[in-house]
C-alpha cells in the first residue's frame, strides 16, 4: 500500500477579518515585549503571548517557531536601531572632542541620548522603551545574557574605550566593575518606571529638559566612576564595623549559652527532686510490715466469702416501729 506523504511545510494560520500577516506578527511582538517588561524572560509564556495578542498558537509557530526566536525578534527590532544610533553618536563625539578632550558626560550622553530620543518616538520605541532597556540589562536569564554578549559586545567595548580615555586616572579593571555596577543600578531604575513618571519626579512642577533629566539620572553614575579608590583610612573604618559586628555576635552567643546553661541546671534540679521523691516512696514501701502467709490467705478467704453471699442476705433487716399498746401490756405483766 502506498505510504501517506506528510508535508513538512508549516501551514499559515487562518486569517480572520481584515487582519494581515504583518498585523498579526506585530501584535505578537508587541504582546511579547510588554510581557517581557512586566515579568521578564523566564516568566513569559507562549500561552500568555497568545492571550495578550489575541492569536492562536499556530500563528506564533508560523511566524517564529519558538519562544527564543520570538524574543530575538523583539530585542532585535529595538536594540539593533538603538546600538546603531549609539555608535554613530559616539563617532561624532569622538570627532568633535578628539583624544582626551572627550569628557565623561559626552560618553554618557552618547550612551543615553539615543535611548531618550527613541522613547519620545512611538514608531521606533515609545514610552515603554526605557523600561525595556532596564529589563534587558536587569534580567539574569541565560538567554538574555547570551543575547547581549553576542549582539552588544562590540558596542560595549567601544564605549568602554571611550570611558577609559575620558577617565585616564582610573585603572581599566577598576573602571570595568564600576561601570557594570553603576549602569546596572541605573537599569534597575529604568525598569521600574517609564519616562513620563521619571520626568514628573525630577521636574516637581517645573519645566525640565531632556538634558536636565539626563544629568539627574547620570550624576550618581558619573560620581561612582570618578570617585578615587578607597584609601587605608576608609578600609580601616569599615574593618572596625566588621570587628564590632563580630563582637556583638560573640556576646549574643555567650548570652545564649548562659541561658542554655541555666535551663540545663533547672532541669537537673527538677530531676533530682523527682528522684529523691521516688526514693522516699520506695523506703516507705520497704518499711511497711509484711503480712504472714496464713493471714493473707485468711483475709483472702474472708473477702471471697463476703463476695459470695447473695446481695439480699447481706442487706440489713428491716425494722418497724413497735405498737404502744403491746409495750404497755408487757410492762404490766412484769409488775
UniProtKB/TrEMBL annotation:
Residue ranges: DNA binding: 45-64
Pfam families to which the protein is assigned, alphabetical: TetR_C_30, TetR_N
Domain HTH tetR-type: 22-82
GO molecular function: DNA binding
Annotated segments matching region Disordered: 1-22
Domain of life (superkingdom): Bacteria
Positions in coiled-coil regions: none
Keyword annotations from UniProtKB, A to Z: DNA-binding, Repressor, Transcription, Transcription regulation
Protein name according to UniProt: Transcriptional regulator, TetR family
Provenance organism: Cupriavidus pinatubonensis (strain JMP 134 / LMG 1197) (Cupriavidus necator (strain JMP 134))
Lineage: Bacteria, Pseudomonadati, Pseudomonadota, Betaproteobacteria, Burkholderiales
Amino acid at each position: 500500500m502506498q505510504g501517506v506523504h506528510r508535508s513538512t511545510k508549516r501551514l499559515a494560520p487562518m486569517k480572520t477579518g481584515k487582519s494581515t500577516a504583518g498585523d498579526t506578527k506585530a501584535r505578537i511582538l508587541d504582546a511579547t515585549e510588554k510581557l517581557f517588561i512586566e515579568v521578564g524572560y523566564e516568566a513569559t509564556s507562549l500561552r500568555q503571548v497568545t492571550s495578550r495578542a489575541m492569536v492562536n498558537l499556530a500563528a506564533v509557530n508560523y511566524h517564529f517557531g519558538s519562544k527564543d526566536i520570538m524574543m530575538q525578534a523583539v530585542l532585535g527590532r529595538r536594540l539593533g536601531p538603538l546600538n546603531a544610533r549609539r555608535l554613530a553618536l559616539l563617532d561624532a563625539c569622538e570627532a568633535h572632542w578628539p583624544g582626551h578632550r572627550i569628557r565623561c558626560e559626552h560618553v554618557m550622553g552618547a550612551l543615553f541620548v539615543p535611548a531618550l530620543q527613541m522613547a519620545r518616538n512611538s514608531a521606533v520605541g515609545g514610552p515603554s522603551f526605557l523600561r525595556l532597556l532596564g529589563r534587558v540589562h536587569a534580567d539574569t536569564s541565560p538567554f538574555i545574557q547570551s543575547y547581549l554578549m553576542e549582539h552588544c559586545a562590540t558596542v560595549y567595548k567601544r564605549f568602554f574605550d571611550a570611558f577609559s580615555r575620558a577617565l585616564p586616572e582610573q585603572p581599566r579593571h577598576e573602571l570595568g566593575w564600576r561601570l557594570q555596577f553603576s549602569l546596572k543600578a541605573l537599569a534597575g531604575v529604568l525598569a521600574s518606571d517609564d519616562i513620563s513618571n521619571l520626568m514628573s519626579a525630577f521636574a516637581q512642577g517645573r519645566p525640565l529638559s531632556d538634558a536636565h533629566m539626563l544629568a539627574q539620572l547620570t550624576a550618581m553614575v558619573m560620581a561612582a566612576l570618578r570617585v578615587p579608590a578607597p584609601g587605608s583610612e576608609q578600609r580601616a573604618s569599615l574593618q572596625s564595623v566588621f570587628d564590632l559586628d563580630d563582637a556583638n555576635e560573640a556576646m549574643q552567643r555567650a548570652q545564649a549559652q548562659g541561658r542554655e546553661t541555666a535551663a540545663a541546671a533547672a532541669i537537673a534540679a527538677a530531676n533530682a527532686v523527682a528522684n529523691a521523691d521516688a526514693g522516699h516512696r520506695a523506703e516507705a514501701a520497704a518499711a511497711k510490715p509484711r503480712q504472714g502467709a496464713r493471714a493473707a490467705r485468711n483475709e483472702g478467704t474472708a473477702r471471697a466469702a463476703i463476695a459470695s453471699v447473695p446481695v439480699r442476705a447481706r442487706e440489713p433487716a428491716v425494722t418497724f416501729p413497735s405498737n404502744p399498746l403491746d409495750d404497755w401490756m408487757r410492762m404490766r405483766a412484769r409488775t
